[in-house]
Design goal:
Layout (H helix, E strand, L loop, with lengths): L7 E4 L19 H8 L1 H15 L10 H9 L6 H13 L7 E3 L1 H6 L7 E4 L2 E5 L6 E6 L4 H5 L6 E5 L2 E2 L5 H8 L6 E8 L2 E8 L1 E4 L3 E7 L5 E7 L6 H14 L5 E4 L5 E3 H11 L4 E6 L5 E5 L10 E5 L6 H11 L4 E4 L7 E7 L5 E10 L15 E2 L4 H9 L10 H16 L9
Parallel strand pairs: 12-13, 13-17, 17-18, 18-21
Antiparallel strand pairs: 1-14, 1-19, 2-20, 3-10, 4-5, 6-7, 6-8, 8-9, 11-12, 15-16, 15-20, 19-20
Helix pairs in contact: 2-3, 2-4, 8-9, 9-10
């Protein structure tokens, strides 16, 4: 299975890439075929064909997919909107919240976190696979949502007073987005509490990597790297961070993937290769059982001790990276269980300007673990209380410091690893 950089997205977000594959271009059609392509039924059939060719589950969730085609093409559609409603109804039968249809406006407005800039409040959304409720995967660090205190696993119950019961993720994204400077009110369920957030929309510039040198209690220096997204510039920024910290002769590293919702597959592979000298990184398996395996390339930038911080907002590409580091015994994973999103989507443009995301494969860790719905279990578990979490939200400068309990634990684990490690060169041969 060939993985292209443009089309493959590993993210639990409601956003989508804008790379398109327009079908039917350049064909010479008969009059009857041309009429069919211009009718609302054409887009229904186009979506059906994409699923029929590419969907990861060859049983289509135990649905007779060929019968679905006849059922939906035998209907009459007076408008494209009626066809769009039917498409969403058809896709719902797959039971997969990540396979979704976007009308032209939704497809145009939805952005994946690869451009380095977003407009909105900075929330990553998905429909919970069991409850179908709109769930926050992660607020983007530094965004209006993050600054206001929105947390991973929060359930959005209302948007500007409109109930989200049964609401499609794409519809929710459309309602939340809007012009910079305008406001949107979100009602959120957090456990048994109901919260309300008044958020001002903003342009969010994203630099996926930040790093610093931290003093260890034992007197040495350690490198702290926080990665917030696997965007197109994540790998080059990560390389720069490691090379800079190596020059400062740090004794080890803490890589913070907390609340990182994922992003591009190739970014996670490239970053894994900076830490892993030999071994597997990830394999993707489609419905034919074909597997594409990505391996280390013997070009790791450092072999110094590494601790990785994760939590329930660490999803998809974050889980690929942490799973690869864990299976190769390259790092100790500290924090709480990750989100559990082990599916690969391809985002495609359709003939009328609409688009769809279709789950085409699942990914496995080097040891063959399927982490979808389960997640990565940390080697060392440390939970944050609500009070500790809120303190970090109120003062984000405390993240990655001694005032951050999970970071403090990671530092302890790193010091133990560095103490038992013999002195060696910083870069693998």
């Amino acid at each position: 299975m060939t993985i292209t950089k443009r089309a493959i997205v590993l993210s639990a977000t409601a956003a989508a890439v804008t790379a398109v594959i327009v079908t039917g271009a350049g064909l010479h059609l008969s009059k009857s075929q041309a009429f069919f392509r211009e009718s609302p039924k054409e887009i229904v059939d186009e979506v059906w064909n994409v699923i029929d060719r590419s969907y990861v589950d060859g049983t289509f969730n135990q649905v007779d997919w060929k019968a679905m085609r006849m059922q939906y093409l035998n209907r009459s559609y007076a408008t494209k909107e009626e066809a769009y409603k039917a498409i969403r109804e058809m896709l719902k039968k797959l039971g997969d919240p990540y396979t979704r249809f976007m009308d032209p406006d939704e497809f145009k407005n939805m952005q994946i976190d690869t451009s380095g800039e977003l407009t909105g409040v900075g929330i990553q959304l998905a429909a919970d696979e069991k409850t179908k409720k709109l769930t926050v995967i992660s607020p983007i660090e530094g965004s209006p949502a993050s600054s206001a205190g929105v947390l991973a696993k929060d359930i959005i119950t209302k948007i500007d007073g409109k109930s989200t019961e049964g609401m499609d993720v794409n519809k929710a994204v459309t309602l939340i987005r809007g012009p910079v400077g305008t406001q949107v009110k979100l009602n959120v369920a957090r456990g048994d509490r109901e919260l309300e957030f008044q958020l001002k929309r903003a342009k969010i510039e994203i630099h996926p990597v930040r790093f610093s040198v931290q003093k260890s209690p034992t007197g040495g220096n350690i490198g702290y790297i926080r990665l917030v997204q696997f965007s197109a510039n994540a790998a080059p920024e990560m390389r720069e961070a490691i090379q800079n910290l190596e020059k400062q002769q740090v004794s080890g590293y803490i890589l913070d993937l907390r609340s990182n919702p994922g992003g591009l597959l190739y970014a996670s592979v490239d970053i894994a290769r900076m830490w892993i000298q030999d071994g597997g990184i990830v394999s993707t398996v489609d419905r034919q059982g074909e597997s594409d395996r990505e391996n280390a390339n013997r070009r790791a930038l450092t072999d110094k001790p590494l601790v990785v911080l994760v939590d329930g907002g660490s999803a998809s590409a974050s889980e690929i990276l942490s799973g690869a580091l864990q299976d190769n015994k390259r790092a100790t994973i500290v924090g709480t269980k990750t989100f559990g999103k082990g599916l690969v989507q391809s985002v495609r443009g359709l003939g009328d300007g609409s688009g769809m995301a279709v789950t085409i494969a699942k990914y496995l860790t080097p040891n063959g673990r399927d982490i979808n719905k389960h997640g990565i279990d940390p080697d060392v578990v440390i939970e944050l209380t609500d009070e500790q979490r809120q303190a970090l939200v109120r003062d984000r400068d405390k993240i990655g410091t001694a005032a951050d309990p999970q970071f403090a634990k990671a530092l302890q684990v790193l010091n133990q690893a560095a103490a038992v490690r013999p002195q060696a060169e910083s870069k693998p041969n």
